[in-house]
Structure formats: C-alpha cells, structure tokens
Design goal:
alpha+beta, PucR_C-HTH_dom
Length: about 400
C-alpha cells in the first residue's frame, strides 16, 4: 500500500482546501451510511457485524473513513496505521475461514457508497467537478490499497498457518513413530492439535523427495505427511479402507517409495521402519517395484536389515564349500538350496535344476560329507536355507 494518499493521487496537492474541510464535516453521516452498506453486504454473505470479525470490520470501516477524509485535507499524512488495521482484518478473514475476495467485495462496495454519498452531498458552491474527479481517483485508489493490505494479511496468515500445521503434523508423526509408544494422553493431545481423528490402524509410506505437504494433500483420505531424515513420511489412516491404498499408489506413480504394513496405531513405528528399509532396498536396486510393499518382501528385509550381516551369515554357514572350485561350489550350493526347498525330494530337485536325479543324489552325498549332521538339524537347515537364499540371490 502507498505510504500517503498523495502517492495514490498526486492531484490532491492542488485540491482546494475547502474540499477537505467539507469532507470532514460529513464524517458522521458517512460513517452511518457506509456501516449500513457493509452490514447489508455481510448479511448477503451470511455474516454479521456482531461477532469478533464483525466488530473488527466495523472498526475498520470507521478507521478507513476517518483516514480518507483526513487525508484529503492533509494528503501527505502517513497511512501506515490504516494499512495495519486492514492487514489484521485480512489475517482474521483467513482464520475464520472466509475467502480472500470476500473482504475485497465489501471494500469495493463501500468505496462506491462513499462516492455516491459525496456526489449526493455536492452543492452548487462546491466542490467543482474537477476537484470531484481528483477525489474519485484518490478514493478508488485508496480502496484498492486497503484491499491489497487485507490480501497481504490473508496470505501472511495462510503462510503462517501452513507452517504451523507442518510443525503440528511433524510433531504428531514423530510421536507415532518414536521407539516407545506414546502415552495415550500425549497422543490424543497431538492428534487434536493436528485435527487428525485417531484411526485404529495405520500404514506408513517412505518416499524419496521433500514435498510432504503436496503428497499428503494428493493422497487425501486423512493422510498426514512430513519430512524425517530427508525422506517424506506419510501416515495413512485405516489403510484397509476401500480405495485408499490404490489412491496412494496412483499418487506415487514414478516415485521411489516403500510401503510399510498395516498395523494397529500403537505399532506405527514398525510400519515406519519397514517402509524406510524397503525404500533403501529400492534405492539399492535390490527391490524394483514402486512402491515396494514391505509385507511382500519380509524375508528380504530380514536378511538385509543389518548391512553385512547376511554376508557374514552366508560365509559362516557355507564355509564347508569355500575350498571348492567356483563351478563345483555353485553346483553344490544350488543343489543344497533345492533340496532344502523341496524337503529332500530328489526328483523334484532334479526337475528344478534341469539335471538327472542321479546327479542330485551324487551331489547330496558330497554335501553330506561336507556338512555332516548339520543337514539333519531343523534349526541348522533353516539357517542354511537363509544363507543359500542370500548367496544365490534366489527368490
């Protein structure tokens, strides 16, 4: 907004002083006329001047009228205080859920009424038509400036509210995924602050990027999102709701993402951790779908949870094969893996490996010599199976 009315309409510098004196004399009836017009406009919007915003707008009308008539008489006077009033009104408009153009419509109507009032009270003695044109230019420029100040206030409040909401959502999500489940009272308080009805179940998505607000809004369905550790974390409430996961997948098309399992609210951290690990394996090229559904790759997640652990497991468990030539080592490893998967059914193993059953029996005799009683121990067979699955990259 301009600093003075003279900045808006330079012609005021040459206005006859009597015009300003005449306008000041009309101050009281002008208040009444404009307030009645504003009341009617607000009633048409389903609002009134009885609430907090109404009282504020009534004050704004009086302030605007007073500032205008005084500025016509003294066009170099500072309008900063008036600008501040309408900036605050713009903020209140946002907080009360009104549209940004609602206040502008009221201001425009008020400006027209001021002009109609001034024309109606023009006497043969003055002001001259040329002076009226100058006043008109100042008036409508002034109304635009007030509307601009209100719009700035509205947008400032919108931005601040967005920042507050982002902080509130981040606090809630952080609480949900912390190592220890939060106390019920703390969780309810955080959810109330975020205006997020607590669901019975949740699933967490971890997504490459930093556009948390955009993704949460696009997925919808009550999804809340924030950035934690440079990854967008999205909490989906009640993911079994028909269409909710499908909508999330559509929103994430072309994005690397991991989807944690649906879990009770108190176990949100498990879904969070699995989704994050799934995303890491997607980045590493181990898993290739988007989003990677953790529930569909639990064994892979288990084997690769601690980097290097699966390699160490394979080295330790498959040490009896280490001294063999690479081709023989590979053949025996594949045979042992097939034997474990097929529960010792030689013919089925042979079919899987596209070899003769006698070859499988021969290799199993070798493996018996190498591994001994380990092959008869159920727990050891499980560990061998995991080690071979990792080493062979088998499904």
């Amino acid at each position: 907004m301009a600093d003075t009315l003279l900045d808006i309409e330079p012609g005021l510098a040459h206005l006859a002083p009597a015009v300003g004196v005449q306008l000041r004399g009309l101050r009281t009836p002008l208040h009444e006329r404009i307030l009645e017009t504003v009341r009617a406009a607000m009633r048409a919007q389903g609002r009134s001047l009885t609430g907090g915003q109404g009282r504020g707008l009534a004050l704004g009308v009086r302030t605007a009228v007073d500032a205008f008539v005084d500025a016509v008489a003294d066009p170099a006077r500072d309008l900063a205080a008036t600008r501040a009033v309408f900036h605050a009104l713009g903020r209140t408009e946002y907080r009360e859920g009104h549209r940004v153009d609602a206040l502008r419509a009221v201001l425009t109507l008020g400006g027209r009424e001021i002009w109609a009032f001034l024309v109606a009270h023009t006497t043969p003695a003055g002001p001259a038509p040329a002076d009226l044109y100058v006043v008109a230019g100042a008036l409508f420029g002034y109304v635009d400036a007030l509307a601009g100040a209100a719009a700035e206030g509205y947008l400032d409040e919108q931005r601040d509210a967005a920042q507050d909401w982002a902080t509130t959502r981040r606090r809630l999500i952080t609480l949900l995924v912390q190592p220890e489940p939060p106390a019920d009272a703390a969780l309810r308080a955080a959810a109330d602050a975020a205006r997020w009805p607590l669901p019975r179940t949740v699933a967490v998505l971890s997504v490459d990027g930093d556009d948390a607000e955009h993704l949460g809004r696009t997925i919808g369905g009550g999804a809340i999102a924030t950035v934690i550790d440079d990854v967008v974390r999205i909490v989906l409430p009640d993911p079994a709701t028909p269409g909710r996961l499908d909508r999330a997948r559509q929103a994430l098309a072309g994005r690397r993402a991991g989807l944690g399992p649906s879990v009770p609210l108190g176990r949100a951290r498990l879904s969070y951790r699995l989704s994050g690990r799934a995303l890491t394996l997607r980045r590493d090229g181990v898993l290739r779908t988007d989003p990677v559904a953790g529930d569909e790759h639990l064994l892979t997640l288990l084997l690769r949870w601690e980097p290097g652990l699966a390699d160490h497991l394979a080295d330790a468990c498959l040490a009896p094969l280490a001294g063999l030539r690479p081709a023989a080592r590979r053949a025996l490893a594949e045979t042992l893996h097939g034997w474990l998967r097929r529960h010792g059914q030689v013919v089925a193993v042979a079919e899987d490996l596209h070899t003769h059953p006698q070859t499988v029996r021969y290799r199993m005799r070798q493996l018996r010599e190498l591994f001994g009683e380990t092959l008869d121990d159920p727990d050891q067979r499980l560990v061998l199976h995991l080690a071979l699955r990792h080493r062979l990259g088998a499904p």
